[in-house]
Amino acid sequence: MHNTFHGDAETVIQAGSIGHVHLYGIPFQLTPLSRWAFLRRCAVTAALVASGGFLLSTGLTASTGRKAPWLVVTGLALLMTAHSVGWVTWQCRQLSRGRYENALRATVNGVLAGLAREQTARWRDEAIARRVQGPRLLPVLCRTAERALFDHWSAIRTGERSDEPLPLDGDVTEIDRLYGLVPSGRLVILGEPGAGKSVAALRLGLRLLERRQPADRVPVMLPLASWNPADTGLWRWAARRLATEHPELAAPTGFGTTLAEEVARPERLLLILEGLDEMPAERRSVALRTLNESLDEHTHLILTSRTEQYRNAVRRADVLSGAAAVTLRPLTVRELSQYLRTSTRRTGSDGTPLWEPVLARMRDGDDPHALRLRAVLSSPLMLGLALAVYGETAADPAELLDTAAFPTRARIEKHLIARLVPAVYTPPPDVGKPPRWRAEDAERHLSRLARDAARHGAPGGELAWWRWYPGQAKAATAVAVTLVYGAAVALTAALPPHGTIRWWGMTLPPWAALAVLGVLPLLVALVDVHATEPVPARLQLRRRMPTVLRRAAASAAGVGFAWLTGIPTEKDPYPAGFPVPVAIALGVLFVVRAAPSMPTDVASATPRSLLRADRVSTLTLAVNHSVTGPRRWCLEAVVLFPVLILDTWSDHAGAEVTGPAAWATLLSGVLAITVVHGITNTAWGRHAAGRVVLAATGRLPWRTMAFLEDAHARGVLRQSGGVFQFRHARLQEHLLGEAPPARDGGVRARPHPRAVRLLRRWPAPLLAGVVLAVGSATVPASVSQVRRPAGPYAVPAPACSLLDGPTVTSALHGAPVRDRAARNMGGLYAPWPRDDDGWCSWHTEANASRLALATDAETPTPDRSGAEIAKDVFAGLTTRPGTRAHADPSATPCDWRHEHVEPGSGEATARAVLLCRNVLFEIDYDAPAGEPSDPAEPMQRLLRLAVREGLRTRAGTSP
Fold first, then answer.
1. Which residues pair with 322 in a beta bridge?
2. Which stretches does DSSP call E strand in 245-297?
3. Which listed residue, 38, 251, 348, 892, has the most CB atoms within 10 A of its CB?
4. Which residue from 476, 483, 492, 495 is spatially nearest to 522, judged by alpha carbons?
5. What is the pLDDT of residues 582-629, one digit of tens each?
6. How far apart (Å, rounded) are the C-alpha atoms in residues 884 and 572?
7. pLDDT for position 958
8. How many CA atoms lie within 13 A of 535 on its CB side?
């Protein structure tokens, strides 16, 4: 329970506790803080932020070529802890400043005014739909109930100290006047089944709303069948019910409560509690005791119930404290005759008024069948059914006079109930547009919905779209969640890295490691699907746009910083830098966590409006829904894990092969999987998944909401807030008997209760988070151990075979003589003990010309690829003190922009070095004596011939 505190800040501090909130699934108690306690927590938060930021930055920008995963994980954990401590500290400080009531009063008053407007419009529409307005209103009378069913008059007449009875006899049309005579503001409306109790409560609430003043209570109608008094208090249940019908009231106030909890106060609401008789028998007396314990001098309420059920509950508990009671009485024959004559202008085949034969039979006082007809039609429910069956179709009510077909009252009532659905879905010929659904199809669908509501204990037989067929909806959602897990694993398998890693003593591909790590988060998410029931939400970003824009700007700045850290400089040509993909992922999560706000303007609470609002919230904020709750956070971490794997691999073994296409595919795939994951975490997502299965198997119409709205317009269903209900419990009972046999027989696989209880508690997602944290450190470390690629080219052929004899002879202008020992020529030759096939030199004795050729294919290491090593060697060969490297990172290797040509020691000498990814070529050329031309041109021609021959021979790739 949340307490309300009045007074200044010191009074609030002495109160000790306001409420509790949940952050990352862990409960936190909000307690006011003194100034020094607030400063101490701020210091702790700042230290955590500094430590976490330092460790995260150090781990991600390590210059050793290998990331420090443990530093990254520890940094993120410290930052999350800092966020929790800081957010809770701020909330507690707000309480300490005494702003709890002052900040909410204006908002709550606006919510109450909006709630009153919405209730007025909706109840007017419902009164029209139930046909209890204008000339259709039945002349139902009420009288004071029997003495044993209400409290002492002195307790009812609070402040008057009088035992005189109140004049509560009158007409339902003036029930608001009768209620105004009760000083305590508490009234019990009793009656037999179908006597019109719900209609009386509806009219009373509507009248009170129409004349409500700003300071008056707002009437709200709540079905008691949805309340379990043993588990939930009266006002807590009322707040939850209001938040379900009006999702905007689930908005947090920032002080550990919601708007619904602030609105659901005795001084702000008039509760109309409908249907005590619809509660299970064992709960009725408990409900009465709980109601009496929850009442104070500010509590006004109205209770409806069948007379006999209320009497039994009173015997076991007590009467409703301070409440008067009235009983609705049946219609008389005179009232029936007057009403039936004016209800229709149709006539029979002989020209007499349609209902005249039935009325004539009812006036026969001692006739048994006349007594049966009077007993049936004196009930407002049965009278309304008779008008629907005979007043708007071609059927003739004279068939009710058949004593053989209707020997008992129960047979007549069963006949009227059974004929309702066929009657409203079969209009007279050539009258209006035919119904979209045939009568037999409509009855089949309604029967299945009735059976599903009864099977799963839907309170009062409610047809709430987010609770239709919960077993099938949960099964379909579980399949979708499993597909999310499978899609994350498949995405990792489809993209690089390929090959295997060594992880915890096992040799397996990275996708298999992710599959193992994701088992526990998947189980936690599946238990979350089984154990939770999402309710409709109405979210918006409009009020949070400034925060979203600020976070987006900060995220963009972070991505820009990460990009700048990766730009090569003269001092650091190949910087490690902050990974840009990681910065993008963190930025997106930072923006997404700017939780959208819930609007405080109360919208229309109809089933379609709730469905539409939840669908819009789901589709526009699917990414946010994917990280709502710790159990979903675990599975979302599995979805984001491929980004970490690819980022690690692209910094190590995949440095030369990971391009924009791989990143674009990965990020788009992760985004698509995240959206699907978020949709499964919402009421509309589960409804959509279940509806597809149910409609495809014929158990529901494809346009289910349109079907229910049509049934409501035809008088088969009634609307209570955001849910539909059957017109009467007896109609639901009849449809249960007409329901076709279930097609989902067999044994259902259900999770073990003990496993469900274990995985539902918050340590389970915490354990899953620890497993993922360990995995995020060990799997990337294993990926980083994969040897980096050698490069696209294999080791070239022996250097002596790259230039044929005629070519060398032509270049030296004489017969070449091959050198058998390498001279200290510098570059790739100085010295050259690694591979005798990697160099070759020729000379001529006649003209002192010389030609030398060397090749070098670099071998990769776990930290550096062959291409990276070759690039560094190229820079070392072509860089002199005071100059920069000639390697052009933007040039395609072997496009000859990576060729470095420099003159030799004399005018007739030249030297060139060429980089082809992981292979280096070097050539030295001393032109023949007396050669007038520049030696660089023939040298370059010889180098190109050697490169083409060497790369094509071994790699099959033409430069």
1. none
2. 269-274
3. 251
4. 483
5. 777 777 767 766 655 555 455 567 888 888 888 888 887 787 777 766
6. 11
7. 39
8. 13
CB within 8 A of 367, min separation 6: which ones? 361
- Strand segments (E) across 360-505: 501-503
For 204-212, what is the mean pLDDT? 90
Q: For residue 828, what pLDDT band results from cuts at 50, 70 and 90?
A: very low
**Cβ neighbours, 10 Å, residue 599:** 17
Is a pLDDT exceeding 80 seen at residue 955? no
Higher per-residue pLDDT: 1 or 66: 66
Structure tokens at 910: 């030249």
Q: What are phi and psi of 835, to 5 degrees?
A: -155, 115
Distance CA 655, CA 868 (A): 9
Q: Quick one: pLDDT at residue 746?
A: 39
Closest-CA residue to 310 (of 190, 446, 440, 471): 190
Contacts of 228 (CB under 8 A, 6+ apart): 237, 283
Q: Which residue matches tokens 């980022």? A: 647
Angle value at C-alpha 38, between 33 and 40, nearest 5 degrees: 130
Closest CA to 320 of 558, 149, 509: 149
Evaluate whether 662 touches 645 at the Cβ level (below 8 Å): no
- In the prediction, which pLDDT does 602 show? 55
Q: Read off the pLDDT of residues 682-693 as tens digits, 9 standing for 90 and up.
A: 889 988 988 888
pLDDT per residue as tens digits for the range 369-413: 888 888 888 888 888 888 888 876 777 888 888 888 888 888 998
Query: In which residue are the tokens 């006539």 written?
Result: 347
CA distance 871 to 898: 10
Place of tokens 């079907």: 707
Separation between Cα atoms, residue 782 and residue 631, nearest integer Å: 27
The H or E element spanning position 750 is none
The answer to whether 709 and 702 have CB atoms below 8 angstroms apart is no
- Compute the C-alpha angle 598/603/606, nearest 5°: 120
Please give the helix or strand (H or E) that residue 828 lies within, else none.
none
916 vs 896: CA distance, rounded Å: 9
Write the CB contacts of 594 (distance below 8 Å, at least 6 apart in sequence): 544, 547, 548, 551
* Per-residue CA distances from 370 to 295, 336, 337, 357, 364 (Å): 47, 13, 13, 11, 6
**Contact by Cβ (8 Å): 239, 263:** yes
CA angle 275, 280, 285 (to 5 degrees): 80
Q: Measured between alpha carbons, how far is residue 596 from residues 276, 540, 544, 624, 671 in Å?
A: 38, 6, 6, 8, 19
Residue 649 tokens read as 């691999």
Model confidence pLDDT, tens digit, residues 312-321: 999 998 899 9
Query: Cα–Cα distance between 324 and 755 in angstroms, integer?
Result: 50
SS3 assignment for 340-398: HHHHCCCECCCCCECCHHHHHHHCCCCCHHHHHHHHHHCCHHHHHHHHHHHCCCCCCHH
Neighbours of 22 (CB within 10 A): 11
Contacts of 756 (CB under 8 A, 6+ apart): 527, 530, 531
Q: Report the C-alpha gap between 631 and 635 in whole angstroms.
A: 7
Number of H helices, E strands in the chain: 34, 19
Task: Give the relative orientation of helices 630-651 and 763-784 as an angle to the nearest 10 degrees.
Answer: 10
Q: Give the H or E element holding residue 749.
A: none
What is each CA distance from 400 to 194, 334, 455, in whole angstroms?
20, 19, 34
Single pTM value for the model = 0.69
- The residue among 936, 945, 933, 928 whose CA lies nearest residue 814 is 928
Rounded CA-CA distance 253/729 in Å is 39
For the record, the structure tokens of 895 come out as 């496009």
Pair of tokens at residue 848? 């002192």
